[in-house]
Amino acid sequence: MAGAPILSVRDLTTSFRVDGEWKSVVRKASFDVGAGETVAIVGESGSGKSVTSLSIMRLLDPASSRIEGEVMLSGRDLLSLSEKEMRAVRGNEVSMIFQEPMTSLNPIFTIGRQISEVLTRHKGLSAQEARAETVRLLEKVRIPNASSRFDDYPHQFSGGMRQRVMIAMALASRPKLLIADEPTTALDVTIQGQILDLIKVLQEEEGMSVLFITHDMGVVAEIADRTIVMYRGEQVETGATEEIFHRGQHPYTRALLSAVPKLGSMENRPWPTRFPVVDMKTGLAAEPVEVAGTVAHGRTPLLVVRNLVTRFPVRSGLLSRQTGAVHAVENVSFDLHQGETLALVGESGCGKSTTGRSIMRLVEPAAGQIELDGYNVLRLDQVGLRAMRKSVQMIFQDPFSSLNPRMTVGAAIAEPFVKHKLGTTRQAKEKTADLLEKVGLSADMAKRYPHEFSGGQRQRVAIARALSLDPKLIVADESVSALDVSIKAQVCNLLLDLQQSLNLAFLFISHDMAVVERVSHRVAVMYLGEIVEIGPRAAVFDNPQHSYTRKLMAAVPVPDPARRGIRRGISNDELKSPVRGMDYLPPKREYREVSAGHLVQLG
Amino acid sequence: MPVYIGKRLLVAIPTLLIISIFVFSLQKLLPGDPILAMAGEERDPATLEFLRAKYHLNDPIILQYFAWLGGILVGDFGISLRTNQPVLELIGQKLPVTIQLAVMAMFFAMVIGIPIGILAAVKKNTWIDYVANIVALTGLSIPNFWLGIMLILLVSVKLGWLPASGYESIFVDPVRSLQTMVMPAFVLGNALAATLMRHTRSAMVGVMSADYIRTARAKGLSPREIILSHSFRNALLPVVTLLALLFGELLAGAVLTEQIFTIPGFGKMTVDAVFNRDYAVVQGIVLCTAVGFILMNLLADVAYVLLNPRLRATL
């Protein structure tokens, strides 16, 4: 780092008042951000990384929070400024972008107005000058047809484009420091790649410093010069990103790094492999264990899906006539054997979740054939459907919202068992206790309510509930996506354990290529409702054939600081929409067999 | 937008038909014979029979309904059994009075309720918020008639500032008209102000914790800009819907308020018509109110769409 730092934080301690008592959530954080430098703060939820950034901006509610220490910005202590002086700093010398591009823009104002507001506020530009400058900024963040989009509202932009608008707003006053708080976490992986590239390029063009908050080691490796690791409010390690990745000292740093799923880490491993478990005291990792030989090949597949089609009508006009349809799932076919994990991967809107729901008939497919454990799923009446659902259960992304907050977890786990009349109340209790032990919790936790559990524990509860009917197939819809890396690793290991002991089949729906590579036997890549490539995991990952598969894999940030310089070449590609007109006829698709069981769509 | 309004008006037709059936049967279900009421002391069966025949009261009920509905469609709401005036004409005389009262009351409600609601939300969980809530609860709890009488006693009888009752058309003598209406409008607006304040507060509290308000703060905007433009415009959306619903309360309140201040409006006419079993008038009033309600809701929905760019795009 050359010259005086732009931002110098010393002994930053932030406390919140909880029930009349002050509880510190960040303790004695001290770090510098040099001119033109990118510093990443990395940590899991509750580590205090976001609170650190909000403390620097003094955006926390002064009534319930207390910030101590020193935050020097070009020689001025921000913590000693009056609120009015601070307002002149915010959005001017330091600006910020946030995680949720969908909600961070005011829905009732045009994006042009929201950007030019910064210019009229801080730079004293007239409305007309601000408009011209705003268009220039929109061009700078590579929004196509910038001048015609000035008067558009946020809902007319996709998530990635909204994040570009946020960046344009943050850059408007040419700040010295940009704080980016998980700016790509809510975005699809190809869009994330675009935004990361954009931030890098703009940083060079503007010469500003960046403080980048993230939980994703892959993103850190790609963007940060230096890295600060935070753990439960403490700054446990600080150093050059390369040092941290290769010679990290603190056990937590090592635990974090070994828990990160790395794309390409599965070369020469034929079976799904558990994540290495790291001893938090020593930081040493145990050798990961493979899960071999669970797949029941040769027998009839547990699940056979043929030419599945699911569409949702799009209506408009005076009489709400159907004017088109979302072709969510289009001509999808695959098999799944007992003890096997098939991953459905793809980005938002590719139809992976709808496929999962269609199989359980949580949505009604328009056409196709589904055979599940001997049931002809699409022909079942209500009674048959109920019976069928004993064979297939689902685990969702958000364990908190999928558990009833007013029901003890014991009651939640026992409910399917009781409702299907599988035994007495006592048997249900025994079953619940047994399931809780099976998912790594203890039987006496049955009396507790969901809010008394951590995120990872809640997902274990959701898994226990799914298992209470002894299903043969589990549809796991982004089941580990919302979890912190270390928890994600544990829950993935649990799923693998359960597969081995209970011979379960998983339909593993995920956007996370690295996790998918780790846990699945076979992979199907979905794009706009269709499977574009399907095959054994090793074949698809080592020898991707379809251009979309390749694009998807290239976009995944890999936690390797050697990739610091990587540029994907800024593109403006947006995710395409599967909404089609009434006269749309799905084209006839041909598949080419690359190797045994590895099929790729032609055309 | 015209398509949207047209669609909404089409949807209103079945609603109005159902209301008309209800209104019509109400008359048939109510105890008391209008002919007896009309005939007064007369008890001669032939006369009563003559009257029944004259008003088609012996026809099958379905025919009576369609005859009645047909009349309404061409603007014939029947004749007041009491005054022998056409009902439509009666309503036409009284309605402007009540509209003036309602508009003024709504004005009071908004001027009091919305700013206090915003203030309470911004100063959430401070003494200002608590005081505002107490004031609002008090406003909600005080019955209209009590507040009306107390105001008359204080302002008119004791201080002699404003007339205690009476009415003057705003087109004839605007000053006098406003003088007579200020107190009743305040009384009527008072309870609405409290409801409005509570809803404005909760809408504002919700909006103030939104991500885009954090963005606005991170931009360095002043609290004034954040509250008035970024927050309030968003909080207005649910409040607008509420205003349409309050319109009903306003009419209900007008019945009492007009009685207390002896204002010759719609409300007073309603009370008189009910007590006199003047069915044609009651029916006309209920139908008019229903139409008013539907129009107010349509207006609220249109305002909602105009305020919300997301919905604007779908039209």
Structural class of chain B: mainly alpha
Number of DSSP strand runs of chain B: 0
Distance between the termini of chain A: 51 Å
Please name the fourth-level CATH homologous superfamily of the domain at 288-391 and 471-478 and 499-544 and 574-603 in chain A.
Answer: P-loop containing nucleotide triphosphate hydrolases
Distance between the termini of chain B: 6 Å
Strand order of the largest sheet of chain A: 16-17-18-13-19-20-23-22
Q: Helix/strand-derived class of chain A?
A: alpha/beta
Largest interface: A-B, 32 and 24 residues
Unreliable spans of chain B: none
- Computed Rg of chain A: 26 Å
Q: What is the CATH topology of the largest domain in chain B?
A: MetI-like fold
- CATH architecture classification of the largest domain in chain B: Orthogonal Bundle
Task: State the helical fraction of chain A.
Answer: 25-40%
CATH class of the largest domain in chain B: Mainly Alpha
Principal-axes geometry of chain A comes out as globular
Given the C-alpha coordinates, what overall shape of chain B results?
Answer: globular
Provide mean pLDDT of chain A, rounded. 88
**How many DSSP helices of chain B?**
13
Let me know the largest β-sheet of chain A. Answer: 8 strands, mixed
Query: Which residue ranges of chain A are poorly predicted, with pLDDT under 50 across at least 5 consecutive positions?
Result: none
